[in-house]
Amino acid sequence: MSSSKRQTIAQSNAIQDLVQTVKDFMENINLRFDRVDTDLNGLTEDVHHLSITADHIHERQQLAATPTAAPVANDRIIPRPRNANKDSVINLILVEVHGSTMDEAHEMVDAIGRAALTCCQSAANESPELAICGWRDLPAENRHRMKAAAFGIAQDNFQHLEFIGRCLDLWPIECFMQPKWSSKSAYARRKRRTEQLELENRNLRVSRDA
Fold first, then answer.
1. pLDDT tens, position by position, for the chain (210 residues)?
2. Which label site among 25, 39, 73, 112 has the fewest CB atoms less than 10 Å from its CB?
3. Which has the closest alpha carbon to 66: 144, 163, 172, 167?
């Protein structure tokens, strides 16, 4: 078997494993709601017991129904795919898990890209010094803030994108944001270097004319 064929098979297996992980996660959420319903049906008229159980149920409902919340120990995290086209993985999650059409999935993926670009532009405008930093050179806090902002924009436009909140390091956002930021920062560095050279040349001409 050729190396390219083995790589294709490995990529296909990685994608299928990720899709299955997402399906298992969604089933886990459904099981939580089933358990909540069972708890509600079994409540007694004891006021004290009702208060305790209601608080417990409310907490579980919040965890199950709020994908943007920070993951807890028992939650399934959607891992970052390896050796696969991440755009295709996102499309598969939207189609296989959320029942979106392929056209709808493409539209939502485009929305992620637009949100990532918007947040890159905003962050670069706010701090010219950070604008020349490569993606890995940015402080982790800044990277997270940018990704979280882009996630919020994308989710506001398409509710199905809420699954990104359970993705490790918001990787669907990062896979779009990193190349966009790298491109913008490279341009900013070239521009700054050009401006520095022009300034040096002007100063040199002035010194010669003096």
1. 666 667 767 677 767 777 777 777 667 666 665 555 555 455 444 433 334 334 433 433 443 443 333 333 335 788 888 766 778 888 888 888 888 899 999 999 999 999 999 999 999 999 989 999 999 999 999 999 999 999 999 999 999 999 999 999 999 999 999 999 999 999 999 999 998 898 888 888 878 776
2. 73
3. 163
For 68, half-sphere exposure in the C-beta direction (CA atoms, 13 angstrom radius) is 14
Among 158, 163, 147, 12, smallest CA distance to 81 is for 12
- pTM of the predicted model as reported, rounded to 2 decimal places: 0.61
Strand, helix or coil for residue 158: coil
Residue type, 185: S
Name the 3-class secondary structure at 167: strand
Question: Do 76 and 140 form a contact (C-beta atoms < 8 A)?
Answer: no
CA distances from 49 to 40, 41, 54, 57, 58 (A): 12, 13, 8, 12, 14
Cα–Cα dist 195/23, whole Å:
52
Distance CA 35, CA 43 (A): 13
- And the tokens for 16? 């299928």
Q: Provide CB contacts within 8 A for 43, sequence distance 6+.
A: 49, 50, 53, 54
What amino acid is encoded at 106 in this protein?
A: H
Tell me the H-state helices in 72-160.
86-92, 102-126, 128-131, 140-157
